[in-house]
Structure formats: structure tokens, C-alpha cells
Specification:
Length: about 375
């Protein structure tokens, strides 16, 4: 019985202590009841009071228009100004081969000769026949003047001369076809046949290449095609060489590669010392000229499946905006569309930011 009284006294003491020494939460709050979930209490502020998402502190950039002298870097290959496989027009035995591998030849220089003894014999025969025909025509002309023969007989003699003259021209053409001459000045490559071989029009005798001037081809994305003009200059660098070269744009391919979405550009540059060879790999710096653009830090750009995007600040909230980019450096990216001058761009905290999140700018940065 005594133990029961002790327990009762302890319970009563705990109740009294609760009442007098530990007031309720309602009393602590000055009699206010806790706010329902999702609602702010009296005196709270949106975005900062209890129940609202806290504002995220970020660095921002105000988009400004600036002039840019951007350039793109591409890779290209040297191309011979002229290049041709030397072939014979007719089949026959090769009787002369006047080339030295790697040597320089001038336009019109004889490279190879096909056996032509049968054609020369036919030409000699025609010369005899033509000489006789001319003598007959001269006698017939005198007889016609005294009306000793008819006009028809004289015309037959004259026609014989004309026919033999045409036959002679045909033989001379055939004789020229037995010669292989350089169509332009350049260097001879390795010969593919030897003297005494029987050649046909399908056989390559050697390759003739002209490398002064020399061409250089490279490709750029199609979006830059309108900013590269014929006559503009590009700079070229070779692997293993610090010597700079300058080339002039001479043509742009009128079609775009449908697979890579690139356009081919052709340039030309002097090569009098022969340092540049067809097939060489080169790096090309292509200036795009002065133009207006908006530049943003590369860390502000978020790639996604559809392209690139940034987060803007609109009325204190984050807003996604898809953009189209241009040239870039290690720190800055040109934005060609998607941004307007004065837009506020988020440049920090992008890993945690979401669409519609409250934003509080803690620092404004500049790209200059």
C-alpha cells in the first residue's frame, strides 16, 4: 500500500511540473497555431518565410552586345594546282621516253613517242601523189583556158588535189597522236612503264603535277559559309614547322555535305620553293570578320539532347532558354540566337538549379 502511494505522488508531481515549468508550443508562439502545410504564417514573406522554397544565391551576367573578331580552326590538305596521268592516245610500241623521275618539264615538252614508221610511209606516199596531182591540175588549167577541155574535167583534177590535202591533214593528226607532250609545266612523278613497252590508252605513263601555285582545301560547318568570302585570307600552319603561310580563298563548294553538314572551301597560295606538297596535313585559322554578338561564359552553357540552353532570371525565378551557339574559346561562347540584350543569365550553381526556382543574385560578373 505504501508503494502505491509513492507512485501516485510521483505522477502528480510530474503533472504539476509539466503545467508550471514546461509551457506548450502554442503558448511559446504567443497563442498562434502552427500554419497548415503549404501555407505561410502571418507575418511570413513568400520565398523566405516558413513553408516556401528558399531562394538560391547565384552569380549572374547581364547580356550585352559586343563586336567580335572571331575565327574558327579547321584542318585541311594541300592539293596540286594541276595533276594529270599522262597517257597515249593510240596503242603502239614505245620508242622514246624523255623523262627523268622528279624532274621539271615545261608545257609542250615531248614526254613519250609511239612507233610511227607506218604513218610516215603513208605520208611520204601522199606527198608524191599530191605533187603529181598539182602538175595535172596545172596542165588542165592551161587547156581549160583555150577551151581544149571541159570545165568538168578541170574540176576533177582540182578535186584530186583537195582530197590528197585532206588525207595529209588526217595523217598529220595521227602522227601527233603518237606523241605524248606535257599539257602544262610541272614535275614528273615516277614512271610506270619502260622504253620498248607496248602501250595502250588505258596505261598511265607517268603523273605530271603542278605545285606552284598550290591549292589547299578545308571544310567548315555550314553555318559559317555566309561569313567566308572569296578573296579573304586564311593562315596556315604545318606540323613540325613554325613558319606561317597565308592563302587566299578562291572558291566555295556550291553544295553542302549532307552527312557532315559541312562546306568545302578552296584556297590558293604561292609555292615557288616547293616546300608545300600535295597531300600535306595543315591547320587553318579562318577569320570570320567583325560582327555583333553576345558572349557568355562557357560555364553558363548547359548541353542537352536538343542542343544547348541557359538559365535566365525572370521576376526572381529561373527560366530555361534554348540557344544557338557560334564560335567559342576556352572561356567564352558566342550566342547567335536565343538571347536578347539585357537578359539576366545565371552563371553559377547550375548543377542544382531547376525551372521556376526562386533566384537571388549575389554577384554580377562581366565577360570583359
Amino acid at each position: 500500500m505504501k508503494s502505491i502511494l509513492i507512485v501516485a505522488v510521483l505522477i502528480i508531481a510530474m503533472i504539476l511540473a509539466k503545467i508550471f515549468f514546461f509551457p506548450s508550443k502554442v503558448e511559446k508562439a504567443g497563442g498562434q497555431m502552427p500554419a497548415a502545410p503549404g501555407k505561410t504564417m502571418a507575418g511570413g514573406s513568400p520565398g523566405g518565410g516558413p513553408g516556401a522554397a528558399p531562394a538560391m544565391r547565384v552569380d549572374i551576367l547581364v547580356a550585352q552586345e559586343s563586336m567580335s573578331e572571331g575565327e574558327i580552326v579547321a584542318t585541311g590538305s594541300m592539293v596540286a594546282n594541276e595533276s594529270v596521268d599522262l597517257r597515249s592516245e593510240v596503242s603502239g610500241l614505245l620508242t622514246a621516253l624523255n623523262i627523268k623521275e622528279g624532274s621539271y618539264v615545261n608545257k609542250g615538252q615531248l614526254i613519250a613517242k609511239i612507233k610511227d614508221s607506218d604513218l610516215r610511209a603513208s605520208l611520204k606516199k601522199l606527198e608524191y601523189e599530191a605533187e603529181l596531182a598539182q602538175q595535172i591540175e596545172a596542165r588542165q588549167k592551161k587547156l581549160l583556158d583555150i577551151n581544149a577541155i571541159s570545165k568538168e574535167e578541170y574540176d576533177i583534177a582540182l578535186n584530186k588535189i583537195n582530197t590528197l590535202s585532206a588525207d595529209r591533214e588526217l595523217l598529220e593528226v595521227s602522227l601527233r597522236q603518237t606523241e605524248v607532250r606535257a599539257p602544262f609545266s610541272g614535275r614528273i612523278g615516277f614512271k610506270n612503264i619502260s622504253l620498248g613497252a607496248y602501250v595502250t590508252p588505258t596505261m598511265s605513263i607517268a603523273t605530271l603535277v603542278q605545285t606552284n601555285p598550290i591549292k589547299m582545301d578545308f571544310t567548315v560547318p555550314e553555318k559559317y559559309s555566309s561569313r567566308i568570302k572569296v578573296g579573304s585570307k586564311v593562315s596556315i600552319n604545318l606540323d613540325g614547322s613554325d613558319k606561317p603561310y597565308s592563302a587566299t580563298v578562291v572558291a566555295l563548294d556550291p553544295t553542302v555535305d549532307q552527312t557532315l553538314r559541312t562546306i568545302k572551301v578552296r584556297t590558293s597560295l604561292p609555292n615557288s620553293n616547293g616546300e608545300l606538297l600535295p597531300g600535306m596535313f595543315v591547320r587553318v585559322n579562318v577569320p570570320l570578320g567583325a560582327h555583333k554578338t553576345i558572349k557568355v561564359p562557357t560555364e553558363a552553357i548547359i548541353p542537352f539532347a536538343g542542343g544547348k540552353k541557359v538559365f535566365l532570371v525572370k521576376n526572381g525565378m529561373s527560366v530555361e532558354r534554348a540557344i544557338t551557339s557560334g564560335t567559342r574559346t576556352d572561356k567564352l561562347l558566342e550566342v547567335t540566337s536565343g538571347l536578347d540584350v539585357g537578359d539576366t543569365i545565371v552563371v553559377s550553381g547550375l548543377m542544382n538549379i531547376k525551372e521556376g526556382q526562386p533566384i537571388l543574385a549575389q554577384k554580377t560578373i562581366s565577360v570583359e
